[in-house]
Fold each of these.
Amino acid sequence: QAEKIAEIPGVDYILGNMEKQEIAAWVSTGEKRDIPVIRTGDISKDRSLGLESPDIHSGTTRAFLKIQDGCNHACSYCIIPRARGRSRSLPRARVREKIDLLVEEGFEEVVLCGIHLGVYGQDLAPAASLFDLLRDLDREPGIARIRLSSIEPNELNDGLLDLFAESRRLCPHFHLPLQSGDPEVLKAMNRPYGPGDFVSLVHRIHQRMPDAAIGVDVIAGFPGEGEGAFENTLNLLEGLPVAYLHVFPYSRRPGTAAACFPDPVPPEEIRRRAGALRKTGTKKRLDFYANH
């Protein structure tokens, strides 16, 4: 892929995921090149999270802090494990240091981000967990609000729910990737839960935290998704107390298992299904607003 990109007129540098922290150093030279510089290491060999990765800020009150990158799972539609490598975490002490710096800069909220937050800390020595990190951050003075970007439904356990329900610092906001409400489609996606597990989790959250905002990722038109399977997804979501949907029309990614699956859904049908899900998502969002 790097060689193909190098053929595009005007390209001077091609940097991989491990090298992207060098972007500023390369660009600051202002040098135009006849032959592009290609620096793309083997991301699968990376075992640490860059300590100096830049933080992204939104306005003056909310900051986004990446504490985890990569993924060890292999969902059949997803290229992330090949593009981002294996899971790796920012050490807990470094997370604390970065949050303290954000507080000094005047930020009142930090969103902890990652590709697979639920496995945070498993690669560290000694090993840690997302629960350990959140419990420590919740106990110590500092940032006023802490939010998670997303978490896998099978990794949002009762211990984490209790922690969020009892905290005044952890925001009751859970963004959960469902992807499909059909058991056979979930199996083909290589997702580690069933529709019933997801439904049970959402109701447990709602029971513990009635005002919680629950967002859902869902994919429309996965290969082999018949009309009945799509209706299962739509009906499941319509019956749940969720606040919004992020709808993704299925997009074939070369190099993934699903790229070779039979029975692709026609593009016009993918668009129709995505539109129906977005319509449901709009209603859910307006209902959530009205309840507050």
Amino acid sequence: FKYFVDLVSNACDFICHNHFNVKPDVVLTCSNMWIAQYDVGDYAQDHDHFPDTLSCVYFVEVEDNCAPLIFEDTLEVQPKNGLLVIFPSIVRHKVDPTQGPRTVISMNFRQSM
């Protein structure tokens, strides 16, 4: 997974340096990564990923009727195959019970010491 982690890490660094005005010498590293397979009825409770800086989810394989990723109970992102969503780790999010299977790769990034 090194190529994929490096690709997402570069995107996180770009966001930090160009949108959050973080100094160029600050580098984020992947603190953890996991793969999840949701079957019909599976869900993710409302949660965040503090104390990490940025989190992401990559939709590997999803069906049209799978549940959206819901941020702060207001913003819904409908999964699509190949979609990468990067967001601040302090943002609460959840997935309601899904009606279709979905496979995702999730990662958290934090500042290197």
Amino acid sequence: MTTPVMGQQAPKATKSAGLGLGALIALTVGSMIGGGIFSLPGDMAGSAAPGPVMIGWLITGVGMLALALVFQSLANKRPDVDGGVYGYAREGFGPFVGFTSAWGYWLSAWIGNVAYLVLLFSTASVFFPAFEGGNSLPAIIGASVLVWLVHFLVLRGVREAAGVNTIVTIAKVVPIVLFVVVAATAFKAGVFTADFWGAMVKIDDAGLGSSMDQIKNMMMLTVWVFIGIEGAAVFSSRARNRSDVGKATVLSFVGVLALLMLVNLLSFGVMAQAKLAGLEAPSMGHVLADIVGPWGLKFVALGLIVSLLGALLSWTLLCAEILDVPSREGVLPAFLSRQNAHGAPAGALWMTNLCIQALLVYTYFDDSKYLGLVYLATSLILLPYLWSALFHLKETFKTGQSPQLVDILVGVFATVYALWLVYAGGLIYLLVTGLAYLIGLPLYLKARAEKGQPMLTKADMFMVGLLVVLAIGAIVKFQSGALSLNG
């Protein structure tokens, strides 16, 4: 097979050769189930007691279901829009907002991959102590090798990589289901209700605060474990049938929500909260080891490694795809849409993995930790979710149409939830988002110049001014030490 001339577009896969429902579900589930669920017992116990956790999951369940239904509805109503969160933002609010959505989502995705790599090699230290911490020199070398192995796998073609992802997704669910079954048999109601609202428990000699504080504290973690719910929508242009995009989104959400809640809540009935909060990652493995013995930790560690390998592949695919579509539409520079002979977005893939490599090196010198990277990645995806919810509302009240009550409720719930997430994330991470978006502005301006289009409208200039203010605030916070990646 001959290689296209540099810059020449390889043809898109035909619908008959596109991604089916099973592959779309595997991509979505594989994106959501990464490392978060395996560390959920300890991470959540450090933020909230069982009562606030249950309220938080109720809020998350309703909010994320609304977002899942937003993506399902938009996939059915607007099958002409490609690129998921990017496409909806651009179609609804213009090229510059589309750029912020694509750029923020891409940043979130590849920073999340760095978090996965840190956790993967930290977990591998169960078997190879040299990897302890996940950012030792041997760990960084191992992570770098893995990044480029996945890179060249995806260069072989998106459909082929998605096939591998399906197998890995099935394998990663097995240890989670086993944990749920074993933890259910060891569950003790007295342990679960001992300090139901967290009034007495101390974590690092500090209380958990009010129930509202605890709910806010757990919100970023609940969003993190659900990031990827839009995975099928991002791959909508490669789906064999557009109707499968919505089905894959909702089915994946229901299955993953059930697993997350069971893992989290059952753990509170196995160990006291203070003990849970002190567990090292993967805390699920330590809980299982407390029930069945030392082999439980090694079993979960193996499952987590498989899970993270699958998530790394899923998110590498998503990273490349979210840059590919906007670059073809003139919102990002044309080199990012360059495809190779296998139809893989090579330009976007190279830029993504070079950035991952750079941040991996930074984590070695900065001693960056998993949770710090998680919070940063999560904050960057909040506005893309908000744009999608607002676009759904805009479509619902489109002139000449009679809005359906279900569509109104879905749009309102999704929008309110997205706004709540921005609030719960806190001012510091909103400032970081502004800085991150501003850094990508030259790429947007380059793309506009390539198309001979006006650089910025008056509305765009207002938004850029707002980003500058947020960026200055973020720089001040970094310099004062109020914000770092150490987690």
Amino acid sequence: MITQSFDFSNDVFDLFALFKEEPHLFFLDSSLTASTNGRYSFIGFDPFEIVEGYDLESYQRFKNRFLHLQQLDGRSSLPFHAGAVGYLSYDLGMLFQGVGSSNDRRENGLPLFHFGLYDVVLTVDHLDQKLHIASNGFPEVESGARQKRAKERLQKVVERVGHLIPLAKNYVKAPGSEHSRQAVFKSNVTRDEYVRAIGRALNHIQQGDIYEINLSHQVVVEAQSNATNIKPWELYARLRELSPSHFSAFLNAGNHQILSASPERFLCLKKGIAQIRPMKGTRPRGRTPEEDTAFRQELLHSKKEIAELLMVTDLERNDLGRVCEFGSVRVKEMRTIEEYKTVFQATSMVEGKLRADRNCFDLIEACFPGGSVTGCPKISAMRLIDGLEVSKRGVYTGAFGYIDFSGNLDFNILIRTLLLNEGKISFHVGGGIVADSDPLMEYDETWVKAKALMECLSSNLPHPRGEAG
């Protein structure tokens, strides 16, 4: 592997814009930077291999291919220098957990997982204001050929970066309001149908079948709007502006694109230490400083949200305990209130030391999907979700991120995420249901979470079509 580093104080989107037309472009984007959660952003394109599939057998082939390449690669001081970038769908998580589905059709024809294997990765360290470009020469394995490819690929990227100019932002045409056409958003359930589903979930909670469950609904952009007529990366520019986040992401997977403003880290593994960061509890930002403070305090002291996050945190402790050293799993943070542009969120952090006889895939399979998007107990909640929700989740509440050839990994949970597929734009929104949930309030909260996505897609929004009445 060879690396070159440069001083870099530009907006990372300037760098992304240089490569906007490249095939299979990814952008793991800390659009809300911080010294910990949002320190790094990563960019890559033109992978040497694409791996995707529709069953566990194809997933196993991906694992085997990755682990073989990992044996041939070396360590790096960078958090991500080369490896796999892509997503795991929620429906793959159902297979991991042995949950059979009552609906076996493939949602929108998308694969259960999709990864590109990338030999060149651009890393922006927002804290140190550095750009690191790493090239490892894969898929060549003979030392001479590998070194030659690594140098050639690195040089091409360095030459492109050298042309970075202050006007790079002018390439971005974020959706404006002057000529936009009104978008209409249609949920796959009405308000009454969603409330009835919550009622059924509450019955199961009262009977002791589960303690908590996450229920969602899908929203489709039904009418033409300006958002359907622009390129995916342009739409992403608008999304990151409206809803900056530590774990934002963009992926052009060829026939579909994922645009995410996720605030939630699912799973991180660095130097053998695994972390899960569940998020439970949401309030909108206020229109005045006083209202903002009131919403924050309401979330901080809500008995419902306290119980909700506590249950999920305990679930994540159990998941990590399956693959981590005995006694190493601990709750590092409990009920941190995080501030975002449109919402407040309550989070916790659980960590543990991965056992020496376990690898990154064992960790993923033990913990995926995240407990914050299923419920407790996880398997029982997932079975009920399959019966209560109208359609498969697909990429929603799946995970998107990287697995480095050195063994590190970092994934978000795919919430606050747009899916562009075959000319259709859709997204899901949902929330956690516990014993004292108010069904109507829960329904309203889902639309609070949708605020930035809806603003991104239309500057002049009608009332959501899901609210029938």
